[in-house]
Amino acid sequence: MSRRKTSTPSAAGAPTETRRPIVSSAHLVSPRSSELSEFEFGLIVSNNAFSRWIVHCMAAAGLRELTPLDVLVLHHVNHRARGKRLSDICFIMNVEDTHLINYSLKKLQNLGVVESSRNGKDVTYATTDAGRRHVERYREIREACLVSALNANETLNHEIGELARLLRVLSGVYDQAARAAASL
Fold first, then answer.
1. Which positions fall inside the HTH marR-type domain (predicted)?
2. Structural domain boundaries, residue 183
């Protein structure tokens, strides 16, 4: 998307170009940070594209009936080949509603890609051999379709890392704001 520019007169009377932010909800734009509204629009568009990507990639890997959350849960359960508790999955994925994650886990179990086991009071979840095969196929497709298309060099990889850091910082700000709004 290109940014729309408008001409406004400068103090000297000559027109200068100013940038109008690209936002989804102009009524939310704050004079203190129009960039935040622009970020939110970028987040909306990126989230939708990312969700579509992971569902299509997993479908190409052989699991066609998954939602974006199901795909993310499967990847997290597979992460580091260690059993995960429901509470740990929710914590790492920053999901407060355990029912959402639990529903995904049951769905993944029914598909035979995740299994549960009891260790005392704890129930842990791990990927099955079939689940690991689907995750590995996903990885292969991701390399071929996404990583190859990105064709990142050292500079772009550095910028992506900085963006990831900024997203983690902003997620903390949004979490804090959510707690403040919940107390109103």
1. 66-131
2. 152-184
